[in-house]
Design goal:
about 140 residues, two-stranded antiparallel ribbon, 5 helices, binds calcium ion
């Protein structure tokens, strides 16, 4: 009885040892889809989609800060500012097209006169504040 149990235990042990030695635990057996995938692809699959600009930041569900231009911050701390085209005409002078402030212009630097001035008149064309710029 005791001898038989010893033999049984020995046999099981030998079988386990044989399994460990001879079963081909090579890379393909473990997980071929991981081993054969470049690390960069695995990382990009795990991470959030790569965000490169403001539009993608918003599209990724990140909130836009109420500023002008609008700004967006991603979960991982990237910061983007909305890319807006600078207006080419200053909105304070709706009847003419004057380069927007902060390029400061004076009346003798533009070809317009007696034009409407609204808003804050950043160029200072309407010094007397009567709503008409560069009176002649
Ligand atoms: Ca000026
Ligand atoms: Ca004026």
């Amino acid at each position: 009885m005791t001898l038989q149990m010893n033999l049984l235990v020995a046999g099981v042990a030998i079988l386990c040892f044989a399994a460990l030695v001879f079963v081909p635990w090579d890379e393909e057996t473990i997980a071929p889809e991981i081993v054969n995938t470049p690390v960069e692809k695995i990382v990009s699959d795990i991470d959030e989609p790569i965000i490169n600009n403001f539009e993608e930041c918003i599209a990724g569900g990140n909130p836009a800060m109420e500023s002008y231009p609008r700004q967006c911050r991603t979960m991982d701390g990237q910061h983007f500012v909305e890319n807006i085209d600078e207006p080419s005409c200053d909105p304070s002078y709706p009847d003419v097209c004057v380069t927007p402030y902060p390029i400061d212009l004076d009346c003798d630097e533009i070809s317009y006169s007696n034009f409407r001035v609204i808003g804050n008149d950043p160029h200072g064309f309407d010094r007397d504040n009567d709503g008409i710029g560069c009176e002649s």
